């Protein structure tokens, strides 16, 4: 199944040290890596919480711990169904980025 980073013990340990939620830690992690993020929530309190990530920084140690989490999972690999089987979309394209192992 799909890895649940919001439940990862490393994320929770870092969240506890910073007095933040797991979601805030993961959002801050991506911001510090200059990765564009689009958090999703329909819950008003979580939406507000997702915006409260500019009042702290993750230390290098925190960033290294988060980078070390190995999910062996691609969240954004586009798939289609062909003959009842899930296959990578556009895999014949020479610029298709998902042939490389992670």
Q: Helicity, in percent?
A: 25-40%
Largest sheet: 2 strands, antiparallel
* Parts with pLDDT < 50 across at least 5 consecutive residues: none
Placed side by side, the strands forming the largest sheet appear as: 1-2
Kindly report the average pLDDT value: 88
Instruction: Specify the structural class.
Output: mainly alpha
> What is the C-alpha radius of gyration, as a whole number of Å?
17 Å
How far apart lie the N and C ends?
17 Å
Molecular shape: elongated
Count of helical stretches: 4
The SSE order reads: HHHHEE
Find the count of extended strands (DSSP E, 2+ residues): 2
Percentage of residues in DSSP E strands: 5-15%
SSE inventory with pairings:
Layout: H1 9-18, H2 22-32, H3 44-51, H4 60-67, E1 79-82, E2 85-88
What would you note in describing this structure?
This protein is mainly alpha-helical. Helix content is 36%, strand content 8%. The chain has a two-stranded antiparallel ribbon with strand order 1-2. Strand 1 (79-82) and strand 2 (85-88) form a beta hairpin. Helix 1 (9-18) crosses helix 2. It starts with 8 loop residues before the first helix and ends in a 14-residue tail after the last strand.
Summarize this, please?
This protein has helices spanning 9-18, 22-32, 44-51, 60-67, and strands at 79-82, 85-88. The protein has 102 residues and is mostly helical.
Q: Could you name the key traits of this structure?
A:
two-stranded antiparallel ribbon, mainly alpha, 102 residues, elongated, single chain
